[in-house]
Design goal:
The protein is globular. An eight-stranded mixed β-sheet has the order 3-2-1-4-5-6-14-15, with helices on both faces. Strands 9-8-7-10-11-13-12 form a seven-stranded mixed β-sheet, with helices on both faces. It has 17 helices and 15 strands. With 400 residues, it is of the alpha/beta class.
Length: 400
Amino acid sequence: MVEITEGVGIFPREAMAKVKESKRSLLIGMPTETAAQEKRVILTPDAVALLINNGMEVMVETGAGAQSKFSDKEYSDAGAKIVYSAKEAFDAEVVVKVEPPAVEEIEFMRPGSCLISALQLGKQNADFIHALNSKRITAVAYEFLEDKVGGMPVIRAMSEIAGSTVMLIASEYLSAVNNGKGLLLGGVTGVPPTQVVIVGAGTVAEYASRTALGLGANIKVFDNHIYKLRRIKQLLGQQVFTSTIDNYTIAKAIKEADVVIGAMRAEKGKNKMVVTEEMVASMMPGSVIIDVSIDQGGCIETSEMTSHDNPTFQKYGVIHYCVPNIASRVSRTASVALSNIFTPILLQMADLGGAEEMVFNYKWFMKGVYTYRGSLTNAYLARKFSMTHKELLLLLAARY
């Protein structure tokens, strides 16, 4: 400990030499996504080139970027080592994925390595946590990561994409060729504008509102947080209908709506059902519901999770679109956005010497950690799976 303290406080040049040495030793693995419908990747070829130029090694499983139109040759030209099995790609100090790995994939990982991926609470079970802990893996859920001002950069980026995409989806399913109401989203001169109801006033709502207003639709935004409603009015730069959620007002708005967007994020791990089945039944047949929050359980009572292969179903004649990973529709855009977030993080990790040092030095990174060296460190997961957990700060204090 004395040596480290002296190196940092008295001999800065020696500390820099250590950082440089750690850069050469950091090995990053990027396996091909095996989850159905997942087309995004964490790192683009340009990002890989930057990491390698800073002394890191990157292994990319063959075909990892194909769904986002990034070829093996592009990754190879960037300096990555192309590997031909998932087992090789998972055998790295830091594994980066979009979707969480399957339990059998965790078996390929090095003991004590680091996993950066989504957690996706709704899909997980205790076996997943036990598999991570048996390998003493430091697992980081990127949806919990914060930036320096307390925002959630990955959630923000994917929400921007989902919000911008969701109105295009609505327009597609409102058309008569998809058994919709046969409406043009927005409207034209002499024809009343389309009515859009957005439940939630976060980032998805902001970008969906921008798109809807640009097309000429009338929008109504509902949320129970006044500060969010005030913020969205300021960001949109014009007066729009906003309301707190009460049964009478929202029921009336939904009955008249052509499109309903469910965009409420879960609070404390649990989402609220804001739109009831009775409200959905009152809508005109051919109307469209898109529940963007379906990956967290949804906020519309009639929602059921769908996929990109079979994205819709009808209930009470209303078209429901409930695909959890909407950003995968525009996988190349989403991959570049993810890469822009994770490349600086990996560079910082290399500077410090590894994932453990990131956990110890950066509180915003620590917030993403849910398993650490064989222990579950997330209290909500512990309650959900009836498991014991240990506070990460106490584990770090004992270690350092």
